[in-house]
Amino acid sequence: MSGKARIGIIGGAGWLGGSIAEAILRTGLADPDDLTLSYRRSRPDRFAASHWTTDNQLLADRSDVVILSVRPEDWASVPVMLERKLLISVMAGIRISALIERHATERVVRALPNAAAEVSCSYTPWMASAGVDTDDRSLVRKIFGACGVEDEVGIETQIDYLTGMSGTGPAFPALLAAAMMKHAISQGLPGEIARRAVLTMLTGTGRLLERQQDDPAEIVNRFLEYRGVTAAGIEEMRASGFDDAVSNGLSAAFKKSVSMGDAS
Question: Which of 23, 86, 211, 248 is most buried, judged by most C-beta within 10 A?
Answer without folding.
Answer: 86
